[in-house]
Amino acid sequence: MSQAKVDKKKQDKLNRKKIIRKRKFEDALSIGIVVVIAVAIIGWIGYSTVVKYQEHVEANKEYEYFDVATDAIQDYMQSVEN
Predict the structure, then answer these.
(1) How many CB atoms lie within 10 A of CB 37?
(2) CA 67 to chain centre
(3) CB 30 within 8 A of CB 37
């Protein structure tokens, strides 16, 4: 092996704990970012589904109409005016 390779191996051996700690941090950070993105996508899909469902329910809502007889009120108003 060349002297450069020997020196590199020695440096790696001396800094092994630091390198392992850095790798673990990078792995945890990348997993955290993936989780945040996944939660955001799932939340967006859920929100969109709820909004679409509410729009669908509103569009298909049937209304009941009631006829109200106002003859008694009209008779009373006419009697007050006279």
Answers:
(1) 10
(2) 45
(3) no
- Write down the residue that tokens 């009631």 correspond to: 66
Q: Where are the domains of the chain?
A: 3-81
19 contacts 12 by C-beta, under 8 angstroms: yes
DSSP 25-78: HHHHHHHHHHHHHHHHHHHHHHHHHHHHHHHHHHHT----------HHHHHHHH
Amino acid at 73: I
Residue 18 token pair: 């630091």
pLDDT of 14-39, one tens digit each? 889 999 999 999 999 999 999 999 99
AA identity, residue 59: A
**Is the pTM above the cut of 0.85?**
no
